[in-house]
Structure formats: structure tokens, C-alpha cells
């Protein structure tokens, strides 16, 4: 039962193999088993790859099954269409397109399995890439807010500096009228005279201005601090909103790119393994000598070709004979007076009808 199933997978003619030796049946059963298990590996690889895309088991298994059946059909077609010939070069030329197709299939099958085998290493590379993306994302978003925040901080610094300058001026005026009162500067007369009073009034006016300036600038600084806080909140919101996009950066293409960051030698050997599995049925047929099945298949095809050629020759002879008979029949008919008179009569009636129709049309026009 299992042997018949694998023979079916090989694409060989089961009726011919039924009358062949056990060794010949085992050879094609082995080829069919390779085709079958390659399709199983294709199903597993496609299911995993599609799971990284759909993130759903049912969808991944469904489409993976379709892909496995497609690979099975392709492999079966590739193996079944290779015919043994007398010259190995002719066989190789015949198999070259199929070998190229097998290489493509091996790449497609091996890549998802490589992603699964090196999953931990790929996750590490993806984590590094996500961290880099996170930093780059923060810097990119910061470029939208940094100039505005810097302008606000500059304005706040300017307002504070304005208050500091006014305080320095008030302190200087305070020192001036105190020195006048003590007689250390100015008129150098101890006491609170007119000059002292003038300097004291000037200091008091500046002190009132300082108080008003502090109040005004404090309100402005508070408003600017609110704007600055709002910009910082918007910045954090932008970072939080865009972070899920980076966190979900683990799709199929991202994983393939991360796989390419790893050392190439292990992946290359895995590819060679699947390439050997995929091309083994082809090379098995190429390298094996002609067997009982090949001779029987060639004999059957030759019988069909001969039968088709015979049918074609018979049709050619029948057609030539029919042409010769027709030539003789129509040649004899040209000499019969009865047929001549009959066709002459019909032609005369036809010409009369044409003339009558022409006359009626011309009369209608006039």
C-alpha cells in the first residue's frame, strides 16, 4: 500500500511498474518518497513563514497546505518528465530547466526553516535593531519640538536676566543712597540731606519697578513653562504612539533581513541540504542506467508513435485517392450534354431575374 502510494508520488506509470521487477519498483518508490517528504517540509516551512505574516494558525496551516501541494505537484512533474536517452549530455540538457526550478524551490523551502532554526539569534538582532530604531525615532521626533522648546527656554532666560539686571540696578541705587547718608560718597556729608532724599526716591522708584517687573515676568515665565510642559507632553505622546510600530517590526521581511546579518555559513549548509533533497530525484534518474521501466515506457511510446504515423499515412493516402476520384468524376461530368443544357437553362433564368431587378430599381430612381 505504502509502496503504491510512493510510486504514485514519483509520477511513474503504475501499470508498467506493476509488471516490472521489485528493484525497479523500489527505485521509483524511493524517488516518490523523496518527492512526498519534500512536500511535507515545504508545508511546514510555508506554514511557519505565513504564521509570521498572518499571526493566525488556521490561515497559516491552510495556505501552507496549498503551498505544500503545489510543491508536491511541481516536484512530481519535474521527475516524471525526465526521460532516459542514449546520450547523457542530452539528458542533462533536458534536465537543466528542471534543475534550475528545483534550486528555486529549495531556496523557497529552506529560507523559512532557517528563520525557525535561528529564531533566537534573529530575535537578538531584531532587538538591537528595535533599540536603534527607538533611539532614532526619539531623535527624529525631537527635531520637531527641540527648536520650539529651545526658543521658550531662551525667552525664559531672557526674562530672568531682565529681572537680574533690574535687581543689580536697584542694589546699586541702594548702595548709592546709603553711602550718601554715611558720607562715604557723593557730597561726603553725613546725614540725610536733599541729595540723600533724591537718591532714596530714585532707589524706591527702581524698587517699585523691580517688583512690577518680577510680577510681570513671573507670569510670563509661568505661561512659557506651561507651553514647554505641553510640548514635552506632546513629544512623549508621539514617542508612545509610534513605539508600537517599532515593537511590531518582526515580520517576515524583517526576519529575513536579520537572518542576513548572521554568519552566512550555517544558512548556506542548510540551503545545500534542501538543495540536495530537492535535486536528488532528478540526479537519481540522470545517473541511473536505463532500467526495465524505461525500456517498457520507450516501447509503449514507440508503439503509440508508430500507430499515430500509420494513421497519418492512411489519411494522406485516403485524401490523395479522394482527390484523384474527384478529378475523374468532374472530368467525366464536363463531357455530359444533359448537365450542360441544365446549367445553361439555370444561368439564363438567373440573368433574366437580374435584368428584371435592375429595371425595377432604375424605374424607382426615375
Task: Kindly state the number of beta strands.
Answer: 0
**Secondary-structure element pattern, one letter each:** HHHHHHHHHHH
Question: Treating each run of at least 4 consecutive H or I residues as one helix, how many helices?
Answer: 11
Gross morphology: elongated
Instruction: Flag low-confidence runs.
Output: none
How many discrete structural domains? 3
The termini sit apart by 92 Å
Q: Strand-residue fraction?
A: under 5%
The SS-based structural class is: mainly alpha
Helix content: over 70%
Question: What's the quick description here?
Answer:
This protein is mostly helical and 366 residues long. It has helices spanning 2-10, 14-18, 22-54, 57-80, 88-117, 119-182, 194-247, 252-261, 264-287, 292-333, 337-365.
Structure notes:
- With 366 residues, the protein is an all-alpha fold.
- The chain has three domains: 2-118 and 262-289, no CATH class; 137-251; 308-365, no CATH class.
- It contains eleven helices and no strands.
- The chain has helices at residues 2-10, 14-18, 22-54, 57-80, 88-117, 119-182, 194-247, 252-261, 264-287, 292-333, 337-365.
- The longest helix has 64 residues, at 119-182.
- The chain is elongated, with a radius of gyration of 50 Å.
- The chain starts with a helix and ends with a helix.
Amino acid at each position: 500500500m505504502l509502496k503504491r502510494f510512493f510510486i504514485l508520488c514519483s509520477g511513474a506509470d503504475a501499470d508498467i511498474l506493476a509488471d516490472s521487477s521489485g528493484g525497479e519498483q523500489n527505485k521509483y518508490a524511493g524517488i516518490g518518497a523523496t518527492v512526498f517528504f519534500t512536500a511535507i517540509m515545504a508545508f511546514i516551512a510555508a506554514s511557519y513563514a505565513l504564521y509570521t505574516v498572518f499571526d493566525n494558525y488556521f490561515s497559516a496551516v491552510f495556505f501552507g497546505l496549498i503551498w505544500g501541494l503545489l510543491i508536491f505537484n511541481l516536484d512530481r512533474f519535474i521527475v516524471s518528465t525526465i526521460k532516459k536517452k542514449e546520450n547523457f549530455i542530452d539528458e542533462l540538457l533536458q534536465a537543466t530547466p528542471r534543475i534550475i526550478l528545483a534550486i528555486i524551490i529549495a531556496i523557497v523551502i529552506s529560507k523559512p526553516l532557517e528563520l525557525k532554526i535561528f529564531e533566537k539569534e534573529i530575535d537578538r538582532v531584531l532587538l538591537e535593531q528595535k533599540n536603534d530604531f527607538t533611539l532614532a525615532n526619539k531623535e527624529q521626533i525631537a527635531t520637531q519640538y527641540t527648536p520650539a522648546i529651545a526658543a521658550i527656554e531662551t525667552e525664559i532666560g531672557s526674562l530672568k536676566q531682565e529681572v537680574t539686571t533690574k535687581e543689580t540696578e536697584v542694589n546699586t541705587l541702594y548702595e548709592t543712597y546709603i553711602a550718601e547718608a554715611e558720607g562715604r560718597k557723593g557730597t561726603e556729608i553725613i546725614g540725610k540731606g536733599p541729595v540723600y532724599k533724591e537718591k532714596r526716591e530714585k532707589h524706591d522708584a527702581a524698587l517699585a519697578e523691580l517688583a512690577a517687573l518680577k510680577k510681570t515676568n513671573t507670569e510670563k515665565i509661568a505661561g512659557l513653562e506651561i507651553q514647554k510642559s505641553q510640548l514635552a507632553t506632546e513629544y512623549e505622546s508621539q514617542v508612545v504612539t509610534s513605539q508600537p510600530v517599532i515593537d511590531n517590526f518582526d515580520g517576515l521581511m524583517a526576519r529575513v533581513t536579520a537572518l542576513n546579518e548572521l554568519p552566512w555559513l550555517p544558512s548556506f549548509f542548510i540551503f545545500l541540504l534542501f538543495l540536495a533533497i530537492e535535486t536528488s530525484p532528478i540526479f537519481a534518474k540522470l545517473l541511473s542506467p536505463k532500467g526495465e521501466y524505461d525500456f517498457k515506457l520507450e516501447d509503449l511510446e514507440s508503439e503509440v508513435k508508430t500507430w499515430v504515423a500509420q494513421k497519418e499515412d492512411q489519411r494522406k493516402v485516403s485524401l490523395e485517392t479522394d482527390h484523384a476520384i474527384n478529378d475523374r468524376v468532374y472530368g467525366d461530368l464536363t463531357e455530359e450534354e444533359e448537365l450542360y443544357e441544365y446549367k445553361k437553362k439555370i444561368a439564363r433564368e438567373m440573368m433574366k431575374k437580374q435584368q428584371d431587378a435592375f429595371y425595377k430599381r432604375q424605374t424607382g430612381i426615375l
